Amino acid sequence: MRRKICSSVLEAIGNTPMVNLSRLAAGLEGQIFAKLEYLNPGFSKKDRIALQIIKEAEENGSLSPGQTVVELTSGNTGTGLAIVCAVKGYPFVAVMSKGNSMERARMMKALGAEVVLVDQAPGSPPGQVSGEDLALVEKEAQRITKERKAFRADQFNRPGNTHAHEYYTAAEMWEQTEGRIDVFVDFAGTGGTFAGCAKALKRYKKDIRCYLIEPATAPYLAKKPLTNLNHKIQGGGYAMDLPLVDSELIEDYILISDEEAINAARELAKKEGIFAGFSSGANVAAALKLLKEREKGANIVLTINDSGLKYLSTDLWKDNS
């Protein structure tokens, strides 16, 4: 519990609660501990990396006072950066695919960001952002960075992404569970959460098993057939290499379908009162699958990545009665 007045909203980032999903896991051997990252100020875990990347850039001199910050985003990192840049006085440009939910763009604009929306690749359905779509966003982000002589936050490559979770998130998990962690699962976005938490948790307890989650139709990292790159799990599963992830940290890959992620997110809301997005549903679905199969009796820890409020315009919350 915070006992002092924060000097800025940045001090409200992190130290999120952990909840035992005992209602969802009822009847199964083992427990699922969920860290509520949607209770960060920007409603996602990406607030952590936004703060750490900017902090490290200030410390090493790669970001100058008043310099423009640019980043490719599916919306959550952009929201975190909009918050951090607003407080610290940096102009911020978020570059995002039109395939991502519009709630995110509106939130970033409200926080003072300039939002540049990039058309999807031909044939890509709205709401289903592929690696091809992301490549178009990356091209535009590079152009703007060069044109404005900006600092590129570069979440897929900067170590601050990993450090935010290695130094803080994992330590909080360990303390909150009193070390009762056997398994960690995480959906493959940039790989920063997985890499940071897995690295730190294995220092606490070397035999913790860390599973990386991918969309069932786009298991690129698992080296399995790619059948549909335009899945619905926004914020990751881009079928691309993740430089931040060390494959030696990965126990195995868990493949989750759109339907499994959606159903788990809906059950999470109905049974646990936790209103979250697609990737959080994927995390929960993977944990439930593990408890039913190869990890019976285990204590599994995961993050609830962002708020369901960011997906009200998507079919995650349509016709879910």
Topology:
Blueprint (H helix, E strand, L loop, with lengths): L17 E3 L10 E6 L9 H15 L8 E4 L3 H13 L3 E6 L4 H9 L3 E5 L12 H18 L2 E2 L6 H18 L6 E5 L4 H13 L4 E7 L36 E5 L1 H15 L5 H15 L6 E6 L17
Parallel strand pairs: 2-10, 3-4, 3-6, 4-5, 7-8, 7-10, 8-9
Antiparallel strand pairs: 1-2
Structural features, described:
36% of the residues lie in helices and 15% in strands. By secondary structure, the protein is an alpha/beta fold. It folds into two domains: 9-44 and 161-311, Rossmann fold, CATH 3.40.50; 46-152, Rossmann fold. The two termini are 35 Å apart.
**Main sheet: which strands, in order across?**
1-2-10-7-8-9
Beta content: 15-25%
Distance between the termini: 35 Å
SSE string: EEHEHEHEHEHEHEEHHE
Number of structural domains: 2
Radius of gyration: 18 Å
- The strand count comes to 10
Mean pLDDT over the residues: 95
Largest sheet: 6 strands, mixed
Helix fraction by DSSP (H/I, runs of at least 4): 25-40%
CATH architecture verdict of the largest domain: 3-Layer(aba) Sandwich
How many H/I helical runs? 8
Q: Identify the overall geometry.
A: globular
Query: Low-confidence spans: pLDDT under 50, at least 5 residues?
Result: none
What is the name of the CATH topology of the largest domain?
Answer: Rossmann fold
Helices and strands: which structural class?
Answer: alpha/beta
- The first-level CATH class of the largest domain is given as Alpha Beta
